[in-house]
Design brief:
mainly alpha
Amino acid sequence: IYDPPDERLSKIATVPSSLEGSLDALEADNEFLLEGEVFTQGLIDAYVRYKREAEVDAIRMRPHPWEFALYHDA
């Protein structure tokens, strides 16, 4: 359908493919959220910490349904 040259593809920004990657990106670049004093650094840090503990770590501690299906009968 559309096959751009590699040099053009290398200039196209991508987004993280997981929640963990998104949180890493948010930690690395959040200055724009601090403008206008809408968010504080403390709020951003607390949000990232909560999402890691309540979602990323919780999911990591459990088998994915596909993983379960692959190995359940082994």
